[in-house]
Amino acid sequence: MTSAGIRDRVAIVGMGCTRFGELWDQGTNDLLTDAAIECTTSAGVAIDAIDAFWLGTLGAGNSGITLSKPLKIGYKPVTRVENFCATGSEAFRNACYAVASGAYELVMAIGVEKLKDSGYSGLTGIHKVGDGTNASLSSPAAFSFLVPAYCHKYGVDPEEMGSVLNRIAWKNHQNGAVNPRAQYQKEVSLEKIAASPRVAGQLGVFDCSGVSDGAAAALICRSEDAYKYTDSPLFVKGLSLVAGPAAGAIDPDYDYTTFEEVVRSAADAYQQAGVTDPRSQLAMAEVHDCFTPTELVLMEDLGFAERGTAWKEVMAGTFDRDGELPVNPDGGLKSFGHPIGATGLRMLFECWLQLRRQAPPERQVATVTEGGRTLGLTHNLGGAPGECVSFVGVVGTEPSD
Amino acid sequence: MEAGIVSWGVYLPYWRLERQSIGRAFGTATGRGQRAVASYDEDTTSMAVEAGRRALAAPGVPEPADLFFSTPAPAYLDKTNATTIHAGLGLSPDTGAYDLCGSVRSGWATVQLAALAGARSPAMAVVSDLRTGLPGGPDETQGGDGAVAFVFAPDGGVTERLGHASTTDEFLDRWRVPGESTSRQWEDRFGEEAYLPLARSVFGRALTDAGITASDVDHLIVTGLHARAVATLKKALGVPGDRVAPDHAGLIGNLGAAQSGLQLADVLERASVGQVIVVLEVADGADAQVLRTTAALPAVQDARREAGLRPVAELVTEGRSDLAYAVFLSWRGQLHREPPRRPDPERPDAPASLRGEGWKYGFNASRCTACGFRHLPPTRICLSCQAVDQMVPERMADLEGTVATWTVDHLAFSLSPPLVGAVIDFDGGGRYRGEMTDVDPESVAVGTRVAMTFRRLYTTDGIHNYFWKARPVTDGTIGEPEPVQPGAHRAEGAPAS
After folding, report:
1. What residues of B are in contact with residue A199 (Cβ under 8 Å)?
2. Chain A residues with CB inside 8 Å of B409's CB?
3. Of B149, B157, B129, which is closest to residue B53 (Cα–Cα)?
4. Which of A221, A388, B6, B57 would be B153's cystine partner, CB 3.0–4.6 Å?
5. pLDDT in tens, A18-65
6. Per-residue pLDDT reduced to its tens digit, A66-111
7. Do A136 and B467 touch (CB under 8 A)?
8. Residue B51 in 3-state DSSP?
9. B316 — phi, psi (to 5°)?
10. For chain A, which residues make up each domain, given as ranges?
């Protein structure tokens, strides 16, 4: 894939992120309003100052009117985008390109989802029925395919695997416990995680991200204008999104221990950003831990661990908040739930806080404050193993030359 | 002129219900034994497809030019059910497919009709029944579910017909008003009194027509839903007890319309050349036919064994009997079980189902003629070599495969949770992600061998959503892949011009 990228040509100069959770008292319009206002306030601008908008949502509404109506946007371009669970990142990516092209000076990417009004468990309503032959597997079931396949390939005992997955959940809940925006702000013991009721395959309730409502927004401008809005912008280093040919679902060569889409999008984003050794260069990573085995496999696909070794690294604490490479320091989808359109921008919000040393001291990652690293990664995945879209983005505090 | 039987297929569902589990639920005594139970995702049509597949799986069986289907429990009215069976079997579009549904006795007529039609060109009869009754009642306890299929052809029959007789009388033995799920019966002794003289008369006339006496009968099959009349007749016709064919009712129950076919198949699997078989069925009268096995029988028996087709004598002893009575009741709609907190499935779209007929009903992949890669579901552009519209449809339904990975889904909608999902890699190429059925979730592993089975996934707005599922291989290979005739099905890979 040839992608020149837009390294350091645009910058994030403001962000907002609502609390995520079962927000019975807030509708889509409230969430969009709260995220947008926090975002514009952080950059010291009014909504009127923004030239164009990209709204990411899977199901909160169709068309740009979903945003222009509550924000009372006056006759501006508003684009509504959807790309499965990478929707929030997709809104951000397209907004960045619009600025990089020179078409606009200041744009907003905003994502929202209002899931809890449906009354159902888990996510619903993504697939069309058609001829009725699509397997009606739930998302946790589709991702649970990873577990026996990984165990089989690398000779990991299923019980040991259970401990690995439990630790991923435990780690992300530890991180979420000290984050006031998280859906779940409580530590959960390994014993409780292990004893949770089964949802699909080897996955229990605590192996699954929650279902929540939320919204997040980012304000993007040309890098040369960034310091007009903030003393500490985040520069966009690399953006990659790939949609796979759904090969894994029909190709017997696919073994359900990797996401080829992630491998490709990571390589592309790293190349754009000049990242050669992500494990030592990144200060943190926000990855798509929709289910615990997803995070496990992502550690290998994103190049944070050698093939077949991520399970050991997890147990060694490599990806803990105080580990070698903190992964999901904000608590991840595990603690935030997954309001689809908002998630990618929520991840970016954690980079916004951590890389700019604005996270509260109790959860500020030392890779920034002591390690002096300046780069953060966000990763979104939409679909299921063998059939997905993947986004990888890299942002950093320092403009390169 | 009538054709002889050239092949047969018997399908018994995977599940058995212990009769004592019914008694335990009601705190009453119930007879011992089991009954065969169609699973939550089966109906008379899906079982008919399975019986038909087994009848066509033996080598050298001619493709039928006509398909006749009968059941007292049709999945659809107005709409033909035989068309679903026709599509599930992947038969040529130039095949006739007809229902003769309603009464139990129409099953007999269906087989006779296929025998007549088979004299002209090969014909298939499929009879399927799903016997339900009110909870705790005799129909529920003594009934059984299953399907049988026979193929008749002008040549190569393993049977020839020596004689037959029928008699008809109008009386109320058993009846069911359309829309009701269970039938009603008059007093048992009344039906017995009515049936016995009719059956005796028919038996005698059939023997006379064949020019034989009762002592010439090697196998006597007596069937009917009136258990008392059938039991009496078995002893009253002058045929020694050791020549009366077993009904297997203790193991699977009475299959109703499909019972005489089940027993005939059983006899054909054991009979030797030149033996006389009498089939007598009591239903709103009585019918009898006298058959004699031909010299073609041993070769057909051998071929069926080699094809891995299991005999009835084995099938009736198999099945899984740890079915909870409450689960059985929920499957039959007698108990409304709390579903997962998920939206109900939407009805399939009729146009999409027609476009995808080869896939949905025939389980046809598209195979790239440029590189050989198989696509499930069919696609037009090859994943492997990107060739465009170079596909041919290929039937995968009769291939076995291996589980690459699997899961037990407690969240997804299912008529009987949990749903077991699996990724299946087919022998010779092709991968499919779908549902498993007839499976103990504890026993699935990477490497489990599976075969495909035709099922009813769910019903919404009165539309039955039929499709294929995988199940662990239990009854042997049911056939090698057969090339699909070009144009036999509209596959997405080969759009109809």
Report:
1. 410-411
2. 137-138, 140-141, 144, 200-201
3. B149
4. B6
5. 999 999 999 999 999 999 999 999 999 999 999 999 999 999 999 999
6. 999 999 999 999 999 999 999 999 999 999 999 999 999 999 999 9
7. no
8. helix
9. -70, -20
10. 10-121+213-228, 139-181+234-396
Is B189 an 8 Å CB contact of chain A? no
Interatomic CA distance for residues A51 and A69, integer angstroms: 16
Q: What is the ipTM of this complex?
A: 0.89
Where b means 16+ CB within 10 Å and e means fewer, A80-110 reads: bbbbbbbbbbbbbbbbbbbbbeeebebbbbb
The dotted CATH code for A10-121+213-228 is: 3.40.47.10
Asked whether the beta carbons of B57 and B307 are under 8 A apart, the reply is yes
* Joined tokens for residue A203: 């996955």
Give the C-alpha distances (Å, rounded to integers) separating A231 from A234, A294, A356, B217.
Answer: 10, 36, 10, 103
CATH 3.40.50.2300 fits A139-181+234-396, yes or no: no
Which tokens is B99 given? 């229902």
What the block records as the tokens of B96 is: 């006739």
What is the H or E stretch that residue A22 is in?
A: none
Q: Domains along chain B?
A: 4-331 (3.40.47.10), 350-472 (2.40.50.840)
Backbone φ and ψ for A172, nearest 5 degrees, come out as -70, -35
Return the exposure string of B25-61: e unless at least 16 CB atoms fall within 10 Å of the residue's CB, then b: beeeebeebbbbbbbbbbbbbbbbbbbbbbbbbbeeb
Nearest to A252 among B346, B419, B425 (CB): B425
| Strand arrangement, sheet containing B145-153 | B4-11, B145-153, B123-130, B66-70, B96-99
**Cβ contact B421–A119 (<8 Å):** no
CA dihedral A47, A52, A55, A61 (to 10 degrees): 80
Q: Among A92, A101, A40, which residue's Cα sits nearest to residue A380? A: A92
